[in-house]
Structures are given as structure tokens and as C-alpha cells.
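User: Reviewer 2 asked us to show a designed sequence for the structure in our supplementary figure. I'm pasting the C-alpha cells here. Could you produce the per-position amino acids so we can include them in the response letter?
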């Protein structure tokens, strides 16, 4: 989809570029563009070095997490490694899992730090705490690379 957008921009197909851009915007995909003037070699070199820096920074914006998947059907949890881009909400992650596995997002219950439910609007990579407890107690930390999350599935597609 991104390649189609770039081709539409390069060929000057404004209507096609607009249609594809709208499709990209509604797909909730994190996209980063680096525009440059092809006629200016010095500007190109600067952009290439900046692109390398952005690539390095973006790798810092990916969370490497361990996911423990539990359900009524399995006695032992399944353990998987996942990567989540900063800025992704839990709801969008649930929707991705639903699209790929058929497990409805309403049947997915996510927990951090062994017992705290993660709200659907939680943004991975943010410094917002997972749970803000009463004012007397400190809030629970935010999710970082290396953390283990629990995904409890209340109903699988086969158990319907």
C-alpha cells in the first residue's frame, strides 16, 4: 500500500495518491515519510544521514515483549515473543489479533505485571502508567521492553 502511494506521488496521480493516503490513514499503520529534493545532491546526503538516524531511533521505539497466552482450553500457557511499535494502542493490537486469528477482541483480556488489567486505550511506548491506583499509592509502571504480558482468551474460535 505504501509503495502504491509512493508511485502515485511520483507519477503525479493526485487523485490516486489522495485515495491511497486516506486508506493508509484509516488502517492505523505508523508511517514515517522523509521527503527530499531529488535535484539537490547535498540535500540528499543530509537526508540519507537523517534517515539513518531516524531508523536507529525508530528501532528504539519498538517494544520487545513476552506474551503468556492462557485460555480454558490450554492447561499450560503458550509463551511467545512479540514486538509492538510505540504509539500502538491495546485496542489496535487486539484488532490485529482478531484479524489474524479470529479471536474476537472482546474475548481478549490483557494483563501487565502479573495481575493488572491493561485498558484498551493504553498506548505502548508511552510513559503513562498501566494502572493509576489510589492517590496514597504510587501508580503501576508503564510497559517496557522485556516485560511479560498475559493474554487471557475467554473463548477461542473453535469453542463457539
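Assistant: Here is a per-position design you can include in the supplement:
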Amino acid at each position: 500500500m505504501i509503495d502504491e502511494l509512493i508511485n502515485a506521488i511520483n507519477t503525479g496521480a493526485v487523485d490516486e495518491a489522495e485515495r491511497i493516503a486516506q486508506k493508509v490513514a484509516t488502517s492505523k499503520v505508523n508511517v514515517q515519510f522523509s521527503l527530499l529534493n531529488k535535484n539537490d545532491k547535498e540535500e540528499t546526503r543530509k537526508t540519507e544521514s537523517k534517515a539513518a538516524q531516524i531508523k536507529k531511533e525508530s528501532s528504539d521505539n519498538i517494544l520487545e515483549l513476552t506474551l503468556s497466552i492462557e485460555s480454558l482450553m490450554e492447561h499450560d500457557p503458550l509463551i511467545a515473543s512479540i514486538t509492538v511499535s510505540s504509539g500502538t494502542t491495546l485496542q489496535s493490537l487486539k484488532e490485529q489479533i482478531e484479524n489474524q486469528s479470529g479471536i474476537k477482541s472482546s474475548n481478549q483480556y490483557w494483563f501487565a505485571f502479573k495481575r493488572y488489567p491493561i485498558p484498551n486505550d493504553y498506548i505502548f511506548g508511552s510513559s503513562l502508567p498501566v494502572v493509576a491506583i489510589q492517590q496514597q499509592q504510587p501508580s503501576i509502571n508503564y510497559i517496557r521492553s522485556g516485560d511479560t504480558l498475559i493474554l487471557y482468551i475467554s473463548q477461542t474460535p473453535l469453542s463457539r
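For the response letter, you might also mention the following. Residues 2-59 form one domain. Residues 41-60 form the longest helix (20 residues).
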